[in-house]
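Sorry, explain these tokens?

___
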Amino acid sequence: METYERIKELFEAHGDAQRAAAMSAYLRDQFLFYGIPTPQRRALIRPLLRAEKQAGRIDWALLDLCYADPHREMQYVVCDYLRSLQALLTYEDLDHIQVYAQTKSWWDTIDSLDQTIGAIGLRDPRVDERMLAWAQDADFWLRQIAIDHQLGRKERTNTALLEQILVWNLGSEEFFINKAIGWSLRGYSKQDPAWVRAFIDAHRETMSALSIREASRYL
């Protein structure tokens, strides 16, 4: 509780009302903001993250308080925290991370949480089965995480897993799903453009124009 209040005091002291209004508008006025840009926010919480790393544990009580806060920067604190301490996360922590993914969901937090989950997956193959389940979930935010959790893996990409998840999500009318499909393929095209071309050729009739356009950007 003390750490949570200290973060809030810091953010309140460095807030900018004009920037806060612009940041809120950018996310369709769904969230309140202090108006702190990302580099400044990360600099402010750097001492906290350093101390937490030294402690060698995840303070879920602190993260829950931050995620429940009405200001969007506090959800970003959770995302930064998890990415910074991702080496301490285990498969069992996915249940807790899933709660965050399905709370106050929007692309900004989802894009960070999928990287955290992807890092866990590189250490624990059980994440693959979890992602296959999420790829078919009614919640499209979980499906988006499944689609993009391998972004940046390069030669460590599990292409069989990627292909299955993508195929299950083709034909969607959801913008964020079609965007995620394109981003996932675009990311992997830097590693294996032939694989991505073959995927597009095989599924062109069921892929959205958005997915094809994004996937083809580097081909």
Notes: The longest helix spans residues 38-55. The two ends are 50 Å apart (CA to CA). The CA atoms of residues 42 and 80 lie 8 Å apart.
